[in-house]
Amino acid sequence: MSEPASISSGIAERYATAVFEIAHENGKIAELEGNLDDLSAALGESADLRDLIASPVYSRSAQEAAITAIAKQMKLRPVLVKTLGLMASKRRLFVLPQLIAQLRDKIAAHKGEVTAEVVSAQPLNQEQADALASTLKTAVGKDVKMNATVDESLIGGLVVKVGSKMIDTSIRSKLNSLQNAMKEVG
Predict the structure, then answer these.
(1) Cα–Cα distances in Å, from 10 out to 5, 95, 97, 123, 149?
(2) Of 75, 109, 143, which residue sits at a domain end?
(3) pLDDT, tens digit, for every residue of 99-152?
């Protein structure tokens, strides 16, 4: 991990721990999880919001006023509104994506869940997703929350990442393996 990424991760971890503990003490974990989904969606959809959190052009006070107004408009939990304002005043808004990821990890651990990143060549139907979730739950011994994406370059099959484990059953990887084996022979 590069040093800047490590520093960002450390900053996000401290804020995430504080927000999670406050939400946990107040029994507001479910509401916090919903807020994270909303905030993540807003970051994904709004180039202006991404610019606000990353650009050094905005003053601390302008960032704080803007992010606080946005957070209140989105009806985020008070602890999240205050944390975002504090992060802006300390010039730490650039770690917001890492904060969201850290909080999601803490909530998943609290709920006894693990997240699986699933990439398929075609969208999974509900029956396939349920079967895969059931198989993964049996394998890891925890409830599995799946983040499914589509990558047509896989040709067929799946790539599943759970924690530090990765299972690649895609046709693309099998073709690459075959190609490498043929190079070794010739």
Answers:
(1) 9, 10, 13, 35, 28
(2) 109
(3) 999 999 899 889 988 889 999 999 999 999 999 999 999 988 888 889 899 999
Burial class, 106, CB count within 10 angstroms (exposed 0-12 / middle 13-18 / buried 19+): buried
User: Strand pairing partners for 72?
Assistant: none
Q: Are residues 125 and 41 in the same domain?
A: no
Residue ranges, the chain, pLDDT below 50: 1
Q: 157 and 143: one domain?
A: yes
For 89, the domain range is: 3-109
Identify whether the C-beta of residue 24 lies closer than 8 Å to the C-beta of residue 79. no
Based on the fold, state whether residues 39 and 129 are members of the same structural domain: no
* Total number of domains in the chain: 2
Q: What is the pTM of this model?
A: 0.71
CATH number for the domain that contains residue 28: 1.10.520.20
